[in-house]
Amino acid sequence: MRKINFKKFLISAAVGIIFLAAVSGGAIADRLFGIKPLDGLFPRLSNSLKSDNLEQKVVTEESVVIDVAEKVSPSVVTVSIETAKRNIMQFDPFGGGFSSTIEGGKPQDIGSGFIVSSDGLVITNKHVVSETNATYKVITKDNKEYKVEKISRDPSNDVAIIKINADNLTPVELGDSSELKVGQFAVAIGTALGEFRHTVTTGVISGLGRGISAGNPFEGYAEELDDVIQTDAAINPGNSGGPLLNSSGQVIGVNVAVAQGAQNIGFALPINIVRDSLKQFQTSGKFASKPYLGVQYQMVSKRTAIINSVPEGAFIVDVVAGSPAERAGIKNDDIITKMDGEEIKEDNGGLSAIIAKKKSGDTVKIELFRDGQTITLSITLSERSE
User: Fold this and answer.
1) Segments making up each domain of the chain, as ranges
2) CA separation (Å) from 128 to 11, 17, 23, 263?
3) How far is CA 381 from CA 23, 124, 141, 319, in A?
4) What is the mean pLDDT of residues 110-114?
5) Shared fold status for 173-284 and 291-383
6) What pTM was computed for the model?
7) CATH homologous superfamily for 291-383?
8) How many C-beta atoms surround the C-beta of residue 204 within 10 A?
9) Among 4, 46, 261, 311, which is 20 to 30 Å from 159 by CA?
10) What's an example of a GO molecular-function annotation for this chain (predicted)?
């Protein structure tokens, strides 16, 4: 029997272990620190997987946008206005004398909208169709033009319903704006800058419950809007009235405004507000009357109240002539603190949110702060007209 030389065996084993450790350690170091001599034997699986995942994510996002655009674009329309020709006289102070230019007489794309019924009901912004002495047309995706037969304007929201004579139109699908989350994907479609029809832009929901002043730069129209959606999807005056969509192609808002002097800040009315107006209109043929107080105000925050030793509430900036507020004796610089016992604070939506719970014709008790004293007034809310 052959004898085993244990000394040589142990030395050989030790050498083998050292070799394997060196190779394994080198491979691990190569994978961790980016050294490349072993790429052929040990492929960089993690980097490959990251690249594949990134590519898949990009492809998925592209597919979502494409699917939404293809699904909804046939239901998005352009709103065009045509006004009567008029001569505008201008004076040149540098010796040119008077000159005249002609305005109007030609169609101009001024906004967007979307179809909500197969028989020709279209939603847009009220400020898009605010000119009552103009002729409006709706242009669909296939460039068909329809004369607007009737415009109904919501007295309390920047919403209008347009009626055109058409059948077999494809309406949009309305989503649920109460389910929105900040950071959620969003797509806007409309006539960008009043020139580029069916422009598609993307972004996210940047904020919820914002308060803004919206208007039409063509007409100088403005309106205070509460509880709107903020998005960084590109919105501009031309695609006002168009839809803001989720990744399923459902309308979650009506594009209404862009922050002037800022980039990537646009706003949309929540679709649930618009849906309520639409249901009321389809049932009765008119919008529901809304309660009206007749004040312009700014909310006094808790911090501002402490600094100025005044209560939280709605600081009255102006009182509308002939309004319920004026008749009841509300004055500028008053601070309305309660309505029917409910405190008016920023964190509960402010004065407008409490008024929205009432009906026109309701008589409410208002507590206000004036010159260091608390005053109680009884006010009957009226119906707000267009």
Assistant:
1) 173-284, 291-383
2) 90, 80, 72, 22
3) 85, 28, 44, 14
4) 93
5) no
6) 0.63
7) PDZ domain (2.30.42.10)
8) 15
9) 261
10) serine-type endopeptidase activity
Sign of CA dihedral 187, 182, 354, 311: negative
pLDDT digits (tens, 9 = 90+) for 235-266: 887 888 999 999 999 999 999 877 665 567 88
Quick check: 169 and 135 in contact, CB under 8 A?
no
Hey, which residues are catalytic here? Answer: 127, 158, 240
Query: Cα 147 to the chain's mean position, in Å?
Result: 28
SS3 call for 284? helix
Q: Is the pLDDT of residue 221 over 50?
A: no
Q: Are strands 173-174 and 250-258 parallel, antiparallel or unpaired?
A: parallel
Largest CA distance in the chain: 128
- Domain 173-284, CATH: 2.40.10.10
116: Cβ contacts below 8 Å, ≥ 6 apart: 122, 123, 171, 172, 174, 278
Residue 1: which pLDDT band, with cuts at 50, 70 and 90? very low
Task: Evaluate if residue 89 carries a pLDDT over 60.
Answer: no
> Which tens digits make up the pLDDT trace of 296-326?
888 898 999 999 999 999 999 999 889 999 9
